[in-house]
Amino acid sequence: MPEEIYMDFNPQERLLPDNLPYFEEPYRSRLVVLVGRALEVLSTPVRLHGIDVSHHNGDSIDFRAVKDSGNDFVIIKASEHTSFVDPQFERNWNEALANGLFVMPYHFFRGNYGGADQAKHAEDTVGLFFEASNYSKPTLWSDVETSDGVSLTRRQNRLKAFHETLDGNNIQSGYYSSLGKWNQLIGNVDWVSKWWQWVAHWTPNTSPSLPIGWTADKVKFWQYGIYPTYSWTQPVEGVGPVDVDWFYGTVEDLILFLGAEALVNCCEELKQEIVLLRDDIATLTYEVSSLWVDNERQDNHNLLQDHQMETMEYHIGQVTEDVLVINEKLKSIKEIL
């Protein structure tokens, strides 16, 4: 039985022995930060903003507010080792999808558990999400940042087995780590470029520092800080302190990466149906307005008829009275005769 250590990892505990966050850029003067921002404006590649969360971010994340504050995606903790399931995973992915965010799950990798066993547990955990997302290439990330008391070789082999198991089940995958942690925990391996890469480097620089063997063409995401802890991070509403990330590419690129074309096409079809429904509503509104006009005309016609009827009744009454008067006169004449 693997040793139970560091279970349910809390991202807020990412500390070195000297109590400094190991992903953080060393202190930089305000001038250096401002110059870095200026250079960033001039050289920023096309990219999308997003966040990554777990149950440590609470049980009431407002994903509508997250979306409305300029975020396009969220990476959500699903599982850890071979039995732990993040208690907020189901709620988080449902709410995120419902509010128009692209979603990816991650598994917190533990070196003291078998890689294939962890992959199976992760797959079981994300199964319902994969079905609901309707992505043709849903992506599952491994989070690599703890030693777990095993040798370098064993940790390497287990991480490789984790991703090979996902490959065998046609699941796209990649790993998350920082330069310091990857170089310490995994190091230089010949299979590093087989899977996608999500780098952690908290810095205002225009690009992150990459672990050994990682390359720009394989790095799809960059965790660049924590909002609002770091002044260079983009504001995020609807959640407290949160990891913030960039995706290198456009919305169309992210759609292609996840295979979300079917979902987008579905939305386009719905948009077209909405347009047609709006046309139908406009037509019905016009017809209803016409009916109101016709009804008012009919009411006016009826009022006119009622007035004419009253006039006729009045005249008939007058004629009747005249006839009675004439009859009385005739009667008087007869009596005289």
Report on this model:
- This protein is α/β, with parallel strands linked by helices and 337 residues long.
- The chain has 2 domains: 11-259, TIM Barrel; 268-337.
- It is built from 8 helices and 9 strands.
- It has helices at residues 30-43, 63-68, 89-98, 115-133, 152-168, 179-185, 251-258, 261-336; strands spanning 47-53, 73-80, 84-85, 102-108, 139-143, 172-178, 196-200, 219-227, 242-248.
- An 8-stranded mixed barrel has the order 1-2-4-5-6-7-8-9, surrounded by 5 helices.
- Helix 4 (115-133) links the parallel strand 4 (102-108) and strand 5.
- Helix 4 (115-133) packs parallel to helix 5 (152-168).
- The longest helix is centred in the last third of the chain and has 76 residues, at 261-336.
Oligomer: single chain
How far apart the termini lie comes to: 141 Å
β-strand percent reads 15-25%
Radius of gyration: 37 Å
Total DSSP helices: 8
Global shape: rod-shaped
Largest sheet descriptor: 8 strands, mixed, barrel
Output the helix-strand order: HEHEEHEHEHEHEEEHH
Please give the order of strands in the largest beta sheet.
1-2-4-5-6-7-8-9
CATH architecture verdict of the largest domain: Alpha-Beta Barrel
Structural class: alpha/beta
Tell me how many strands there are.
9
Mean pLDDT: 83
Q: What's the CATH H-level homologous superfamily of the largest domain?
A: Glycosidases
- CATH fold name of the largest domain, please? TIM Barrel
Give the C-level CATH assignment of the largest domain: Alpha Beta
Number of domains: 2
Helix content: 40-55%
Regions with pLDDT < 50 over 5+ consecutive residues? 1-6, 16-20
